[in-house]
Design a protein that fits this description.
Layout lengths: L2 E5 L2 E3 L5 E8 L7 E7 L6 E6 L6 E3 L7 E6 L4 E6 L8 E9 L2 E4 L3 E5 L2
Parallel strand pairs: 2-11
Antiparallel strand pairs: 1-3, 3-8, 4-5, 4-9, 5-6, 7-8, 9-10, 9-11
């Protein structure tokens, strides 16, 4: 069955870094766009970063540009999100998403807490 398993979340101080990973299985990873979303308490889920199938195109929401980097490893069926210079307001549950046409798969989420 389809699985997206996130890892790498945790507690980090403001200005620190984390690298999230999302291991995919049960579908043809290379044909899906892979995305990272986040949802803070009381707020709507928002798209943070996206990478095209094949990895030739990436896109980021404006506040994270220059600090976050999304990448994918086709051999490992894994997508990553490198997050640098983290801010307290980026505390949220981060979700991995696979998207193709009308199909979306979601991971269970990983908590990222930015606090001193």
């Amino acid at each position: 069955q389809v699985q997206l398993v996130e890892s790498g979340g945790g507690l980090v101080q403001p200005g620190g870094s984390l690298r999230l990973s999302c291991a995919a299985s049960g579908f043809t990873f290379s044909t899906y766009w892979m995305n990272w979303y986040r949802q803070a308490p009381g707020k709507q889920r928002e798209l943070v970063a996206a990478i095209s199938s094949g990895g030739g195109f990436t896109n980021y929401r404006d506040p994270v540009k220059g600090r976050f980097t999304i990448s994918r490893d086709e051999a490992k069926n894994t997508v990553y999100l490198q997050m640098n210079s983290l801010k307290p307001e980026e505390t949220a549950v981060y979700y991995c998403n696979a998207h193709r046409g009308r199909t979306d798969y979601w991971g269970q989420g990983t908590q990222v807490t930015v606090s001193s």
